[in-house]
Amino acid sequence: MADFTFLHPSWLLALLPLAVLLPWLAQRRAQTGLIAAHLQPENRQPSQKTRRLALLLLSVGWILAVVAMAGPSWQKQLLPASHLSGARVIIMDMSNSMYATDLPPNRLTQARYKAMDLLPHWQEGSTGLIVYAGDGYIISPLTADSATLSHLIPGLSPAILPIQGSNAAAGVKAAIDLLMKAGRPQGDLILITDGLSEKEARQTDQLLENKQYRLSILAVATPQGAPVTMPDGRLLQDNQGNTVVSKMHPRRLETLAANHDGIMVRWRGNDQDILALIRATTHLSAQSEQAQDKTIEEKLNGGFWLLIPLILLALPACRKGIAFSCLLLLFLPVEKSMASPWLNQEQAAYQHYQQQEYQAAAELFQSPAWQGAAKYQAGDYEGAIESLSGLTDPASRYNLANAYAQAGQLDKARDIYQDLLSADPDNTDAKTNLDIVEQQLRQQQANQQGQQGQQGQQGQDSPSGQQAGNSSRDNSEGSDSGQQQSSQQNSQTGQSDQTASAPAGGAQPEGQSRQDEQSQSASDHNNEGAAEPSRPSAENQQSPQAGDLSQAGSDSNPAISPDSEGQAPMAPTDEQAQPNADQSDQPIAGNNEDSGDETNGLSASHPTLKKLEQIPDSTRELLRAQIILQAREKPAPDAPENRW
């Protein structure tokens, strides 16, 4: 019993009230009141023995409770002195200045490459990931699986952060909090940045003061600096309209790293900078492994054993029926847990989106990209254009072009596709959709020229034209669909590529005379490659439906009219509809196969023709949603010194 001690001896002071309470209870009469004791029934007077037993039980229970709270300890266990195993956190700068081009293609790309190069060298221990701009955000907590971080880093960019600016101290603070919550009083902080202002360096130095965290810095910039070229191609300017030239101050970074036992390494085109950081961060891990051989004694709290006799003493105090009532509580019906009331607005919107309730999702989404995708899926192409117009990232621009195409504004869609291809010539999705839109524009131009030729031939009568007109009218009485198909074929002569328009031969009505087929074939052959002004007078007497179809195709919607079933889509399409960060999946273009069977064709009501859909880069969108949720839970940060 030499090791017996109290872990919380101050609780023993609670025994003093018992020393005062017991004498008072012993001297108190068993019963007080107006009725004299000798007049009360014999069975109502408690015996002296019962009174003494009650006082004894009260005293024992009081003492047991106080001693249990004091934490009696007579056992101990051995614990390792430390267990660090190389805990580290990567802190990445995501301010707009990372778009500067002094390192090809820009600083952001090189920073992501270097961060991914570091991960394979850290086989032991755990690694976390923090990003910052105007504030700091946790991308990944400490994890021993570096492959997880390698999937997250490519999706990082300033575009996913809600607050722009540069606040390195906020990123360092988030990293310190992450390590402290994980029980790591020591560790490495690897700051990947293009530079710090004096205020940032001072605040970071104050945060790390008196803490056992080592700060190493990888400077991804040059002292000469370069203009900041935003993703849309424009140069970043300050409030006075001057072009921002972001420069690195190496002396400031070297001083900060040296103050906290770290190193500052400049970016290099080889792996020398990576190896230097690895050597610096693995030194602490070796010290940690040596420290694991040391142990410390921790005393165990045995006070919980005193709860057993304390409960037994309390049982007689329970009135009859209380135990039974407590037993009934175990069988009371419990309502099923509901997760939906605890969803935030963005999560509820995404749930509606997954359930294909696009209109409800569009009303709940606050992200313009997601809102535009939901409106697009709901068929509100004008609303999708309104939501996506203010966004400048390539994915949103791509989706905006799709919305323009579905809304019938092919010129604007073509311009955006061309801009995307000029910035990224390898964007096969934009290339495919651009080809389809240009084909639609050529078809519209041919239709307009055909209509002008028809107007020029009005009033001119010829025997052959009259005969052809009579034949056309006779055939229209036999089959309305045959007349529409024939008239559409006439209006589309001059189009050599039949991707967006199925040939009319397979859909020719059986009631059409062979003479009209030969006449129509000769007319198409003579006018192939251009829309000739002179047309047979039969075309001048086409039905209103055919004229409306041509007009609709040129003015309102690139999709095919319901009267032209059996033809392939005229607009670019995709198979998904979530907002995207990268166009990595192939779009569904028009149907290139000729078919005369209308049941195998795509009508205008087909979902493929109604929606231009985009497969999202789910990693980037999930990161954006994660950061937005963190930003809502944190107080608003101080205004940054600048926007870059």
Task: Explain how this protein is built.
- Among the domains are: 70 residues, no CATH class; 204 residues, Rossmann fold; 157 residues, no CATH class.
- Strand 4, helix 3 and strand 5 form a beta-alpha-beta unit.
- Helix 1 runs antiparallel to helix 2 and helix 13 runs parallel beside helix 15.
- It has 24 helices and twelve strands.
- Strands 6-5-4-7-8-11 form a six-stranded mixed beta sheet, sandwiched between helices.
- About 26% of the residues have low confidence.
- With 644 residues, the chain is of the alpha/beta class.
- InterPro entries: TPR-like_helical_dom_sf, TPR_rpt, UPF0353/GerABKA_families, VWF_A, vWFA_dom_sf.
- Pfam families: TPR_14, VWA_2.
- Keywords: Membrane, TPR repeat, Transmembrane, Transmembrane helix.
- This is VWFA domain-containing protein.
- It comes from Photobacterium halotolerans.
Q: Report the CATH superfamily of one domain.
A: von Willebrand factor, type A domain
Give the name of the CATH architecture of one domain.
Answer: 3-Layer(aba) Sandwich
**Alpha-carbon distance between the termini?**
66 Å
Estimated share of beta-strand residues: 5-15%
Mean pLDDT: 72
Pfam families: TPR_14 (PF13428), VWA_2 (PF13519)
Keywords: Membrane, TPR repeat, Transmembrane, Transmembrane helix
Protein name: VWFA domain-containing protein
